[in-house]
Amino acid sequence: MSTQTHDRLLIIDFGSQVTQLIARRLRESNIYCEIHPFNKVTADSIREFAPKAVILSGGPASVTEPDSPRAPQELFEMGLPVFGICYGQQVMMEQLGGKVESGHHAEFGRAFVEPAGNHENDPIFAGLFENGPEEVWMSHGDRVTKMAPGFEIIGTSPNAPYAIIADAKRKFYATQFHPEVHHTPNGARLLKNFTDMAGFTGDWTMGAYKEQAIAEIREQVGDAKVICGLSGGVDSSVAAVLIHEAIGDQLTCVFVDTGLMRKGEADEVVAMFRDNYNIPLIHADESELFLGELDGQSDPETKRKIIGKLFIDVFEKHAKSVGGAKFLAQGTLYPDVIESVSFSGGPSVTIKSHHNVGGLPERMDMQLVEPLRELFKDEVRALGRELGLPDSFVGRHPFPGPGLAIRCPGEITRQKIDILREADAVYMDQIRKHGLYDEIWQAFVAILPVRTVGVMGDGRTYDFACALRAVTSVDGMTADYYPFSHEFLGETANRIINEVEGINRVTYDITSKPPGTIEWE
Ligand code: XMP
């Protein structure tokens, strides 16, 4: 989807773990930006993208090593404002005639930066240093030892004499620290000052996005038919309502009941879409198919692959049943789309194969409509509100396509899925009753592949153990466990053990992401 009517900023990714945060900080200032991996960026691709400014991200390489990544040299002659962060700063120095050395004392963590010389009142520092030095987050091994011609130091810290450097004439700025992370509290302001100076007006609003997305869906689809897989989650629901607004009843939604849904989920989704929105909806009960094929499977990737394939089979069947749909709509989000940078030249590591990413098998004769592929999760929620979806729906916790299957580590059996569904319902009821639902990004139960001994009344039990999971997060990329009170945990464990046959032990998962992931598989 093109967004030519917005001012655009290009982020060249050199592989930092936090590159996505640059995009997030900019979008909070209503600036449209895209992240492109350095090895896909050429002078021509920059011209084609037509950015108003460019940011060079951090990265794990060292510019002092042979064959380490660079920006296209021509970038610096295009008259575009450029901001280099950490490795991006070093790339700028190296390519513009400065010097970078390794082997110096590496610096990680908190530092304080002060304006140098009489640069305190430079526009890049508008609103900064009002209460003294600014806290910043450093993370680097190499450092600049000689600046490129035209640059001067405008900010320093005790261990980083080149903390902020600038060639104001060319609107080139570079920092040794990371302004994009939360640990640099006023970093977003620094980036905003840069984009203000580059002439951005902050024209990336949800209202504008909605109108443009609708026009683009109409153009892409013409008078063809579209089917949209509804999962009950926020993403596919927002995609469906948006597409319906664009093309009306050319859209048919397909809600596939995989037998891996939460308790009551299927009825809720059907009621919402068929009854409230009058969107044509097929309720495909495919639970026998899914549970049959998954029965006895225990490998996480095999489970995901089986589910992905079955979804495609079911969509294909229904594409035919609506009289030949040419398009399949999905709620794919931006974090799923961003290509990760791989320094080995090999493929980047697949942590989990999400079922809605990676295109469709060749044999499938449908094209994809993915109107959310430029958005982060919280932006999808904002778009949902813009489209008039009720808050209770927009604020729903994410629910993964493979559903309860990836919350049942070890062998999947119908019995375990049934027990899990019941335990999950009690847990969610507890969270709602205690008014915690909106404070939590996502919560669920995982049933563990172990049985443990317990005692109930006078009898011995030998039942499954389960784990409760609840995390806080902004976009699912990183997460912290939710700090429930002991009272809440105790009450919930009691309820689950008493109300759910088949579970006699409850644990609470306190792993953050990283190093864990949110789901168990
Ligand atoms: P992880 O477990 O990778 O999950 O930390 C991050 C977020 O993504 C959701 N998730 C999925 N969503 N299809 C989806 O639509 C999938 O295959 C899938 N796997 C994980 C997960 O629930 C969490 O919100």
Biggest β-sheet, characterized? Answer: 9 strands, mixed
What class would the helix/strand composition place it in?
Answer: alpha/beta
The total count of strands amounts to 20
Bound molecules: xanthosine-5'-monophosphate
Strand fraction equals 15-25%
User: Termini distance?
Assistant: 32 Å
The rounded Rg comes to 26 Å
Mean pLDDT value = 91
Report the principal-axis shape.
Answer: globular
Strand order of the largest sheet: 2-1-3-4-11-10-9-6-7
Unreliable parts: 342-348
Helix share of residues?
A: 25-40%
Count helical runs.
14
Key traits:
5-stranded parallel beta sheet; single chain; alpha/beta; 9-stranded mixed beta sheet; binds xanthosine-5'-monophosphate; 521 residues
Characterization of the model:
This protein is α/β, with parallel strands linked by helices. The protein is 31% helix and 23% strand. The strands form 4 sheets. It has a 9-stranded mixed sheet with strand order 2-1-3-4-11-10-9-6-7, sandwiched between helices. Helix 1 links the parallel strand 1 and strand 2. Helix 5 packs across helix 6, helix 5 packs across helix 11 and helix 8 packs antiparallel against helix 9. The radius of gyration is 26 Å and the shape is globular.
